[in-house]
Here is the input.
Amino acid sequence: MTELAPEELLRVGALLASAGEELAGPLDASLVAGGRSNLTYRLSDGRRSWALRRPPRAAVIESAHDMAREYRVVAALRGTAVPVARAVVLDDGVALGVPCAIVEFVEGRTVRSRDALVGWSPVDHVRCAAGLVETLAALHAIDPASVGLGEHGRPDGYAARQLRRWHRQWEQIGGTDPRADRLHARLTALLPEQRLTGIVHGDFRVDNVILAPDDPGEVLAVVDWELSTLGDPTADVALMCAYRHPALDGILGLPAAWASEQFPSADELWDCYQERSGRDLGDKAFHMGLAYYKIAMIAAGISYRHGQGATSGNGYEGVAATVPVLLDAGLAGLDND
Here is the structure.
């Protein structure tokens, strides 16, 4: 069940009022398309809108749906060079029985499927990719302590922690593909020294931002911060590049916009980030291998939740099939290095 019941909406309204939001009338809620992990609703009182984020009610995977973490980083980044929605209130479970975070709704364009790219020129695709790279570089340039995020995570040993975390999730959901164990073992053996430190988004691609309606190169807000932490910014860049893989279609259950051949390639994005940020990202093969491993684990988690009846909407049938494809991509990258 993903709808918000009338009594839940009353409690959410009281929550907004307690945060100083003046409501023009009763709230209604609509489930926003997407959200393969946490669920997103648009709340409206007929005059203003807010976005409510909450985890699924069942099959919650440890550390995969952290509302407090998401809310904390959005609140901290307000007023920086990274565009985010205005944070409104965090609830620990009183309103909905699960933690939820409410931010102001940002009116703009969400580019999720390739249908949304109809009418885009080659220049539009390049401008959009450049805007994403600029936004990511701006995030990584922020001193975490200067915005109150000095304790948002342990900055060192990020890749090793990621390998442990996603391997733990794989075990938690009962994963059995031997390729996952092989890729995990090879990445563990190849761990490079961490060279960079900063705020990491953890799931950065075009459908996790809101674009200006009239300018695909302008990012109005970065969303979906549930995996954010302190660590190696290279991981964000590698993930953005790895998500260009056609397997993203299967994960999202639609022709994914970010998998379109019209966007710059993974190699071009990697080089663009290095040029615009002035940073040498180092061991590309390792970081791309880790990115493919992480995406495979994310896909496995989505498939697991779907099997437990804890997902909403359609298009989940092909998610499980992407896991071996992504694991193969990670192994092949290390083989070709």
The radius of gyration is 19 Å.
